[in-house]
Amino acid sequence: MPNVIGVLVKIAIASDFHLGYERFREDAYKQAEVALDEASKAADAIIIPGDVFDMRVPKPDVLAEAINLFRNLSKKGWKAKVTEVQAASRAYTSVPIVAIPGTHERRAQGVENPVNLLGLAGLLIDVSDGYAVIEKDGEKVMVYGIGGVSEERFLETIKKLDPKPKANHFNIFMFHQSTYELLPFSEDFVRFDQLPKGFDLYVDGHIHNKVEKKVHGKHFLIPGSTVLTQLKDAEQEEKGFFVFDTATGAYTFHKIKSRRFVVVKVDMTGKDAEQLASDTRKAITAAVQSGADMPVVRVELSGTMKKGTRGIDVDFQGIIKEYHDRAIVEIAKPGMETIESSTDVDSLRKGSLENMSVKDYGLGIFVEKLKQSKYGLSIGPSELFELLSEDASKEKVIKKALEELFPSL
What we know:
By secondary structure, this protein is an alpha/beta fold.
């Protein structure tokens, strides 16, 4: 049971808007706008577990979009207010919109991130490394947040901060990390039983499809992204956000209008080029006709074609162009991805990489290679990865990286 009886506050959980995502930039903005607008009508407060932006240093026009989005949201007649904040950043508003930065916003230590900038502008509260108390009619909800940090530092951060629930509050622990139970890819990923105990609800971002689990006997929720990005099978489900009723412990998933994503599978076994082309067109047509929007259709080919026939004999580019005004079509052919090691093969077979982004996968390989080389610098492998990939100032970044790599110079 929660630490307080009779709480009357409803909390909306929306995440991973990825504002500025180049491929579907308009979708990212519009679907975030719809999700936040509907969430503000359905709940007393909104919490956002990371990846508001798609990049660490958003372009000025993307930052302007976010400012307009949250400024409009902050003008709504909120009955709930934030009455207490103890976090790494100061609070400049009492509007009950509480967020943390995610992996896409994570920057080298000591450098401002774009979510923090929205907090400094008074458009939301960045609750990283601390908590905010949301109050309505005397009832209190505490949201403790840890913004996205390198995986190998997350447990260290938990131990350092030592998050604790507050008595007579409904307590939420919010973070943005990979978890081993969902992505059994690295021993650095936090496990459910390593998360701090005593909270009434656990909320995570990062994964782009919704997840409903239990941690320490309490609900663990990931709302998923509000925009298509990874084009994995799990993203075929509709996008949306959760609303959690802190009085009853019940929650609902609210769907939003979003671009459809359909995965169709075509078996090539024993087919010649003409038959495969025909079957591919039929599969795409069926997917397109099931809705009136401009869906993304991913065709996954499997099997071995008729002896003497090759996939190159099929004009797949021509097929894609046929549907240019009805759908965004992708055709995944066997052999397009290179498997680097047996470990990767096992992970793929188990489906453990299903929800992992390309960046996270690359980061995992980078960290693992450094460990194998007996890496022993004071800066963590993930922080070094972020430092080396920083865009803001190349000269400054290279200098810092060299200082870390060769401190005696």
